[in-house]
Amino acid sequence: MFARRIAVVGTGYVGLTTGACLASLGHRVVCADVDEIKVERLRQGQIGIREDGLAELVSEGVAAGRLSFIVGAAAALDELEREGVPVEVIFLCVPTPMGVGGIADLAAVEAVIEEVRDALPPNAVVVNKSTVPVGTADRTAELLERDDVAVVSNPEFLRESSAVNDFLHPDRIVVGSSSQDAAERVAALYARLGAPMVLTDAASSEMIKYAANCFLAMKLSYVNAVAELCERLDADVADVTEGIGYDRRIGQAFLSPGPGWGGSCLPKDTQALLQVADAADFEFRLLRATIDTNTRQYQRMVDKIRTAITGKRTGSLTRRRIALLGLTFKAGTDDLRSSPALGVAALLKQAGADLVAYDPGVLADEVLIEGSLMTVVDDPYLAAKDAEAIVILTEWPEFRTLDWSRLADAVAVPTVIDTRNLLDPDVLRRAAFAWVGIGRTMRG
Ligand code: UGA
Q1: How far is the CA of 263 from the centre of ligand 1 (A)?
Q2: Architecture of domain 209-290
Q3: Using CA positions, which residue lies closest to atom 2 of ligand 1?
Q4: Closest residue by CA, ligand 1 atom 20
Q5: I want to staple 346 with a disulfide (CB 3.0 to 4.6 A). Which of 111, 261, 370, 406 is the partner?
Q6: Tell me: the pLDDT tens digits for 74-128?
Q7: By C-alpha distance, which of 174, 265, 259, 176 is closest to 223?
Q8: How far is the CA of 220 from the centre of ligand 1 (A)?
């Protein structure tokens, strides 16, 4: 394999993982960001995000002279040029947040193109790794106005908290471009990974990313709906998902019911594909229902909590003290973006509840939810003090091994609403807690 000379623009979890992993595969990589403080910290080995194995890969890359950090995309190209061989591939890993009406906001992508347009050497390849609407590769090529520079779509499939592992052991690599030569050059960067390779046109590649994330969201909305039905029919969703998951066409993964799906990707990508479908005059009802089911899931969790605390679906939560365990959108991350836990917390707050939260990934302080503040403490036992219910909202494994007898002494009423089916109901019962899960019978 030839080592390539690569610039990666954007040092978020996608860009930093991409840069550090490509360096670990032997390529020379310069990572650029607009944030001077972030770049300075990265140079000192402070990676600023919680990602297993990433700090080690960054320091190995820097020590080997294959990885460096710089402010600005154009400066990254200059740095490679100064070393004697110009950049061959430039990866765009900048944010594409949800813009007006759910459409992906491409301002960051456009700004980078503007910055590097005239500095790119002939035959360079611009690779879009950010999740961008179908058609963005063509739009990027138009903005570039360079016949001698190809544009390639190469979506990432990295999960936060396991991004390095996902990069180095991918299920597949997807590369799309109207230039076969450019697509093959990008595919060759990953040759050592030995993953199945899908080479296609740019629009199909861009669509693969949306179709994958929307399918995952649909799977979760489906399982959350099945869990609801299990409750009504006195069936147990844990057995149901195990039973359907053995069917290889369905698979065991992504079948855990929860308080709803969230994070920085699934909500924005489902909205974006819905907008794209609307614009293409296609009524994507299945996707709309996937999103609506998720929004309703937050309310369903609140109904469940309300019933557990007051004994009635319509009981009042005003000034009822509730301890929330878990705020991040999933375990293993400190990311609160579009967290279902915060969605549920906001509804509880609106209903007048007094909330105190604890999350192993979130510093004790106050978190703003929908305009009002919620107290976050650094001790689960303190969070539980005098609570009328403990609500598990994120599946942090350490919650399983809390001292539940000590928690029983701390609370006012020993009730747990476990929106992740995380805890062992027998352990809870032995500690005198009433336990309510999702879609589970009390057989537990
Ligand atoms: C997601 C995709 O899984 C990645 O493949 C993709 O690359 C990434 O988005 C992206 O577009 O960049 P991520 O946002 O890190 O990754 O989160 P997931 O692990 O997919 O979890 C999403 C949500 O679903 C979380 O709120 C999680 O708690 C929930 N979830 C997941 C469940 O409720 N049950 C499950 O069984 C699995």
Answers
A1: 7
A2: Orthogonal Bundle (1.10)
A3: 159
A4: 159
A5: 370
A6: 999 999 999 988 999 999 999 888 777 777 788 999 999 999 999 999 999 999 9
A7: 259
A8: 10
